Structure formats: structure tokens, C-alpha cells
Fold:
Amino acid sequence: MTVAAGLRSVNHWVTGQRVASTSGRTGVVWNPATGEPQAHVDFASAEEVDRVVAAAEAAFPPWRATALSRRSEILFKLRELVDANRREIARLLSSEHGKTIADAMGEVARGLENIEFACGVPQLLKGGFSEQASRGVDVYQIRQPLGVVAGITPFNFPAMVPMWMFANAIACGNTFVLKPSEKDPSPSLFIAELLQRAGLPDGVFNVVQGDKVAVDRLLDHPSVKAVSFVGSTPVAKYIYETATRNGKRVQALGGAKNHMLVLPDADIDMAADAAVSAAYGSAGERCMAISVVLAVGNVAEPLIGAIRERMAKIKVGSGDEEGVEMGPLITREHRDRVASYVADAAGEGASVIVDGREDASSRRSGFFLGTSLIDNVKPGMRCYEDEIFGPVLGVVRVNTYDEALRLINENPYGNGTAIFTRDGGAARQFQFDADAGMVGINVPIPVPVAYYSFGGWKSSLFGDLHMYGPEGIQFYTKAKVVTSRWPDPGTSKVDLGFPQMR
Ligand code: NAD
Structure:
């Protein structure tokens, strides 16, 4: 379709200012609640990416030399500014993403935790010190920044996921280039302005808007030392393979298919509340959303009944409408793709017990789709095998814990999983057995707090280190071990033997 002229433009942010693209290529930012275009976003050329990286490179030497106390002070100020602007950030991201304001406020709060964690950087960068490792010799470790690092982020958390990355990256003394999702790019610029107001020197944090062209240049630019990525699994794999081939350090977090195992002794109301919140919150567009319930034994009937009761009360509408609990999907194409899983399920032998396509909201002009519940889902069905990333929950009926566990462990994804039970022994066994990076016990979305690290296993993460928290600090620094002796003329002599610690 032709997009009307006169829409606002979303530009790059380089050396502390907005810079309009000269590539002549742009994308459309939609308003998912109305189905109308609301802005153009610049798509950088490779040469524009080079200019952004050059700005970050120039800012690196003075920034890495900046005192830890000063870096911490800037992050504290950023913390205050993000806190004071929570609603503004939430409103902005909701207008482009479609999630409700309450959900967007939650996103900002979880992102803020990462900034708070990074404020402790003087403590986090403390190394070890071994006095008298040999006579008159001390050995100690320091952690130093990598240089220019890049972050490539998905549409579903346009404020929080960048915060997962840049807070630790800049705290450790790196300079940062963010390539946000082209679907909801505006929060990146708002955050850039807050960082500037917090006192961050220009060039330390930069934003390049764009698509694959910009990403590919970041992946092969020799001055980019590390790449953090969050997005779908095929792209995560591509990013990991390309950037590691180019000698970069990479953490690439991919998609998910999170299973929630419900044992017969579970509290049915609690499990139903959790399943509905985790499956339909943010319209199912969360990498930690629950998309499959594994109902063990006779729990299936009462659980499905309780889920249906709750689904009937969910109010779908524009994210900024009072009382709305679930907003639209991100684009028309994505909405149609999600709906196709519901359309195909019956033909594959599953039972569609609530069909979101029939919800009144699905007739609105935005990218709406009501909530769906599919029973008798089985491995091999499209709706079981694929990450749907929409408000569709499947129920797989199983006879035993072992059968349920096998499904979780055989799944190619291993982001999050959860068990609902009153039995502590069963929960502990599950924590031991489950092949996934994040496990919830009577908690459906076990996103770790900022002082642990976030990451899945198997096809949900390519790379060695998880994101944010202690592993984030490790990712954004390289270790250097110093062995030091101060001259004592009395002990110095020529010795051609291999140095030994005596
Ligand atoms: P996406 O993979 O389409 O896009 C992510 C980023 O990669 C965007 O910035 C995009 O511009 C870029 N990109 C897209 N295609 C590319 C290509 N071919 N080459 C280079 N760059 C490309 O993901 P999305 O649709 O924005 O986000 C949803 C996906 O992200 C879901 O699969 C979800 O599970 C996943 N996700 C995972 C986590 C996690 O922590 N594991 C968190 C959030 C989202």
C-alpha cells in the first residue's frame, strides 16, 4: 500500500543527536490498534552503519578511562530518569507494539532492574588478588571492556531487551550500537535522550535503525567486537554463525515453545490463573509465554473448564483503553499467520474449543485476534511443533509425569518451562530433570531477576553466556591476569628455567 506523506520519521541516534538517513530506504511503523501507518523508520545503508560504528569507536578510549564511580553515577541518574518517565515510555511502546499500558509498565519495571544492577558496576568488576603467589610475586585478575559492541533486538520488548544489553555493556566501559526492531523503533530514541540527560558522553550509546542490511554490516564490521541478539531462532542461528565466523563474541537468544506441566494434585484455580495469564498476556507475544499445557491424568477436564471460564472474561481492545487486558498483534501478516494455526488445528485432529477468530475484536480494523484454546493437541501437529507467538494455547493430554517430561526434553526449544503441583518432591525432581534454561515451580513465567542471568537451552540460545546479570558482565568484558613482582635487587638473578611458583 502507499503510505501517506507527512508521517513522523524515526531516525538514527549518533554522537548524541538524531540523524536522518540518506539511504533512501524506509519501513512503515504501524499502529496495531487501528491498522494504520503511524511513522516511517529509516533503514540504514552499510555506509551509514560504518559512520555509527566510527562514532562509537571514537567514544571508546575516553569512556573506558572514565572512573567507575562516574559510570555508576550516570547509571544512577538514568535510573531516576527512567523511573520518572515510566508512563511516557510505556505509552510510547504500547502505541507501536500494541500491548496494554499496564503490561508496558511491567516491561519498563523489569528493564529498570537491569539498570539498577549495572549501578553496582564498581562491585561487579572486582577481580581476584593472590598475594605472594610466589615469593615477592602477586597475581591478580582484572576485567576490561571489549570496545564497540552491538545489540540487535526484537519487537516484543522494545524497551526492556535493549536495557538487558546496554546497561551492563556501557557500565563495563564498552560503547554500544543498538539496532532496534523496525516494527517499534521509537522507544530506542527516547531512551537515548534519557541517557544523554543522565550525562552519558556522546557516542557511548548510538542507535542505527534498519533491517537486514544494517544487521549484516554490524555482523561483519571489524570494529564490532561482540554481538548480543534476541529474536527468532532462525535469525539467532544466522547471527551466531555469521558473527562467530567473523571472530566476534556472540550471545544469540532465539524462540521458544514453553510447556507448563500440571500434575493431578495441583491447585486448579492457581494453575488456570497462571495458564491464562502466561498464554494470553501481551497477546502471547512473549518468548516466555506458555503455549502448551501438559495436563497429566484426570487434571485435564477441571483445568480446561477453569481456563475457559477465565478466557471468557478477557477484554480485548486497544492497549490504551481502560480495562483492556489484551491488545492486538504486531502486524496484519503476523495476525493472519497466528490465525492459520487455529484454522488448521481441527483438520489435524485437534479440538478447537475456543476460536479466537470468532471474537468480536477480530472484526475491528486493527490487527486483533481473540484468544484460542485447542485441546487434544499432539506432537507432529503444526500447532504443537511451531512457535506460534500469539494468543493460542494448546492442551496435550498425557498419562504420566514421565510422558510429560519426555515431551519437554525432546522439544528442540528449551527456554522456559513450569510445573504446577503441591508436591515438593515432584517439583524438586522436575527442577533436576527439565532440559530448559529457566524453570518455574508454580510460577508460569520464570524470568530471572536482574542479579541472575536470562537464557534458554537448545535452540533457544546460541552461544555460551546467558544475558544480563553476572553472565552479562562476563560477556561484556575480557579477563586479564597480571603477575607482578616489584624489583628487590637482593633477589634478582638470571634463571633460564621455566618460571615456577615457589
Ligand atoms: P526477528 O528474529 O524477526 O527479529 C529480531 C531482530 O532481527 C530485529 O531487529 C530484526 O530487524 C532482525 N532481523 C530479522 N530478520 C533478519 C535477518 N534475516 N537477518 C538479519 N537480521 C534480521 O524476531 P521478532 O519477530 O522481532 O521477535 C520475536 C521472536 O523473538 C520470537 O521468536 C521470540 O520467541 C523471540 N524472543 C526471544 C527472547 C529470548 O529471550 N529468548 C526474547 C524476546 C523475543
